[in-house]
From TrEMBL:
This is Solute carrier organic anion transporter family member. GO terms for biological process: lipid transport; monoatomic ion transport; sodium-independent organic anion transport. Residues 1-598 form the Major facilitator superfamily (MFS) profile domain. It is a multi-pass membrane protein. The lineage of its organism: Eukaryota, Metazoa, Chordata, Craniata, Vertebrata. GO terms for molecular function: sodium-independent organic anion transmembrane transporter activity.
Amino acid sequence: MLNNILIHTDLFFLLFVFVDVSSLCGSYMKSTITQLERRFDIPSSLIGVLDGSFEIGNLLVIAFVSYFGAKLHRPKIIAVGCILMSLGTFLIAMPHFITGRYTIETTIRSPVNSTNTLTPCPVRTSAESSWKYEEPSLQPTRDCEQESSVSMWIYVLLGNILRGIGETPVQPLGISYIDDYAQSENAAVYIGCVQTIAIIGPVFGYLLGSLCAKIYVDIGYVDMDMVTITSSDARWVGAWWLGYLIAGVITLMSAVPFWFLPKSLPIPVDKHDRSCTPDQTSDILKHSFTEFVPTLKALFGNPVYTIYLCVTILQFNSLIGMVTYKPKYIEQHYGQSASKANFFMGMVNIPAVAVGMFSGGVVMKRFKMGVMGAAKFAFGTSLLGFFLSLLFLAMGCENSKVAGLTVSYTGYEQSLFSDCNSRCFCSSKGWDPVCGENGITYVSPCLAGCTSASGSGINITFDNCRCVGVSYIKSGNLTAILGKCPHRESCDKVFPYFMALSVLSSFIISLGGTPGFMLLVRCIKPELKSLALGIHTLATRTLAGIPAPIYFGAIIDTTCLQWGYKMCGGKGACRIYDTSAYRVVYLGLTLGLRTLSFIFCIWGFALLKKHLSREEKKALTNGSAEMELLRKEENSCVHGEPFILGLDSDVDRETDL
């Protein structure tokens, strides 16, 4: 008995470690979205493809693993999955080591005969009077040819697909392994703890992302005193690759214990009577195959399940799109650095979700909610969270004052070029912002009309900036410093309220997570339950996990005011957004999807009421027959969870953050 307890305890901790590691990698991926955009000069829509590629990899092999995994050595298959995940994580980090150093986009040029003086405003000569910049020249032609030969983000795409393939066997095979060989009274505890504690993974993932975002991408290879940007700059790229290396090593180490677990363990006494012989299992599999299509028709013939599926797909689209781009929203709208945005996600938002999920289960047990009670509770918490989320629309900040983009130089036409910078040989492309004494940001020192500069690194000061004086009554030298002007104090005051409301709404919405999931398993016949859960997972991943980051990113791209440009030409990553438009499309799309889901919920309530009424009449008419069927169900060869309307044992639960 002591031996069994030790085996099950070790098994629980091993599964916990791996579930925790896999969720850590996923949340770290989301924390590096803005870093990857800037490093590879790609738009948000393409970042959405990279983020969704994990689900693609998962779906490629899920059917194969689910069918053959149980017949093979499950612990070793999980170990192979760990190794694949580790290799995929290392592959994501590979571009950092096979490409050149990150080059900060800048329009400042040094004179040919001097290395000490910067020339922010190259003067047009008579020969150049009709010439106009088309692209900022950032690298020699040879480097440009080398960069254009292959898109480095392809490695990230392939690595994330490989991660998805490796993660596939963990949940189904790991949970089933525990359930098969742990005592019945312990299995529920193990599975419940593994699913709940897995929330720690995303917390550490975002905290790791926060730490790495503070460190410059080429740390150790460049003189940091000569870096002219800070971590709050739209061109800053943190050490995104470092976190992937750390996560890859941890994942690889987690594979080791699984190699030493046996293929099978002694079956506990309380499960001997429910074990099947090989011949019985073979017959059941053949029967299941022939009955698959009729069973599928019966499942989708249940209108409650079909409506539930539609509701969760819409809710997951809203959730995944919101979570994926929330750190970026905090960066762009409230002027926080990527490091701070990830820190707030990891230490504030995710713990609120975890507490909400746990509390929802406690409330459901405390008040002994039935099917309709669970449905009403889940709907009520979601609706309350929705109304609270509407307040986000009022917690906005005004656009940053950027000359030529959000404000004009003279108060008339908005254009990057004006009389004050007409003497300079400026490019309208790229992003190299400076903050004038007047509190207005200029796209570049050249477009600010600055004629000279002094200092080095981040301490460069630009002098004689003619455009600064256009809207600023001051005589003498007008200066500008590197970087965007800081957000207004009013915006800084709004941000704490935004975070407080974010925590409250996340907690309330999460309260309904567990009751909502239990609604799924309680309104399905026991013989259809496994298929229903499988279809639910497949549908949410295919119709929400993959497309949501893509179309959310594409819509966010439409609010870009100024794009960066690649060294070989072509549009790169967005440098500044119209924050008002960003707020409207980001929150509007999130809330719009949830509004549409509520329409299906109302329809679902009517169907659920009819379903429960029909079941109640059936139970009253055939009470004795139902009890006999229940006894047969408990003693059947292929044992499942006991099914009583309103009650259910522990089921697989996927925590998707």
